[in-house]
Design brief:
single chain; 158 residues; alpha/beta; Rossmann fold; 35% helix
Amino acid sequence: MINQRPDLFAAAAPHAGVMDMLRFQKFTIGWNWVAEYGSSDNAADFAYLKAYSPIHNAKDGARYPAIFITTADHDDRVVPAHSFKYAAVMQEMAARVKPVLIRIDTNSGHGASSTAKRLEQETDVQAFLFQILGVQPKFWQAVAMWAHSSITEPALLA
């Protein structure tokens, strides 16, 4: 959707996406998705897949939303090359008005390898989205109120 209708979004955070629909079946478990997606090795499927493949539909100079891509270096379900290529294509093609960033978790697979890593990734994604969208969490308002008040316990502000 980011590539097809960038005007609908201020920000996006794709996670471990299948971004190259013309080559997905060539990597790791991608061959198993052919029944669902089709295969670029089939001429009829090729045209259909190319029509919506994110990597193949980036438009030069388009005003894309801010994008924060996440992947992991040991993902054996959706090979990280999808995210690497998507980040490179979007950084090259986008109008460069908004950031296109990629976060690569190390020593992790398709999902975070620990609760701590999952929380770190989600914190980064949320911080990016909050910054781009101008969201100020109520927690920060409570901390600011607490810092400028005579109340000594933050829990009393709830």
